Amino acid sequence: MVRRVLSLTSGRIAVAVLVLVALLAVCGPWLAPQDPLATSDNTLASASGAHWLGTDYLGRDVFSRLLDGSRISVLGSLEVALMALVVGAVPGILSVYSGRVFEWLTLRLADTLVALPFLLFAIAVIALLGNGITQAMLVTGALVSPLFYRVARAATLAVARSPYVEAAIVSGASVGWVVRRHVWVKVLPPIAVALAQTIGVGFVIVSSLTFLGIGVQPPAPTWGGLLASDLGYLSHQPWAPVAPALLIMVTVWACNLLADAIRDVSGEAGRALVNNRKAKARRSGASASASVSVGGSR
To answer: Judging by beta carbons within 10 Å of its beta carbon (0-12, 13-18, 19+), is residue 290 exposed, middle or buried?
Structure first.
C-alpha cells in the first residue's frame, strides 16, 4: 500500500508535507534560533534579520515559538488518533464475533460518545484531573473513537460473510486466527483512511483547545496559543496570525490529501490502478520490442 500511495502525486505531496511537520516536531526546539520563552523590551516588532517573524506582545521571538510549539501540536494530534484507533477499532472488530450482548453494549456506548460534545467534555475532565494536554487528548480521542468503531465493524461484517471466512470457522479456526489471517487485511485500508483523517482532526482539536488556553499552561508555546495571542494585537500586527494559521491549515490539508490517496489505492480502485499500470507496462514493452525488431530487419 505504501508504494501505491507514493506512486500518486497527491500521495507524495501529502507524505512530504507530513514528514516536514514531523521533522519540525522532532527538531524544532533545537532549530529555534532564540529561547522561545525569553522576553525582551522589543515588543510587537516587525520581521527582521534577528526576528524572522517579529516578536509578540512580550518581546518573544515568534519564529522560535512556532518551532518549539510544533512538538506539542503534533504529539497531541497523534495521541487523539492513536487513542481513537485503540478504543474504536478493536471493539468494532470484536463486536462481530463476541456475541449479541457485547455487540449491543458497544453500539450503545458508541452512540453515547457521538452525542457528547468533545470540547465541553474535555473541559470537564481537565477540571477534574488538572490542566494537561495528555489527559485532554486521551479524552478527546475516546470521544472520536466511534468513527473507528463503525469503520472497523462495517469492514469486518463485509469480510465475515465471505465464504472463505465461514469455511475457516466451520473448519474449527479460532476467532483470533480468523481476524489475523483474513479480517485484518481487509479492515486495514479503511482504518488507514480513518486514521489519516483523524490525525487532521486531531490538529484541529489541539489547536482549538490550546486557542482557548486548555491543556497547556502559558507560557508554553503552541500553534493554537500563538494564534490566540496574535488576535489580540491585530491593530499592531495584522499579519501575525498568518503563520500559525497557515501551518495548521497545511497540516490538516496534507492529512486529508493522504487519506484520499490511501482510499484511491485501496480496494477495487487500487487493484484497477495496478492492473492499468501493468497493462501500460506490457504495451510499452511490446512497442519497444516491435521497434527493435523493425530496426533489426532494416
So the answer is: exposed
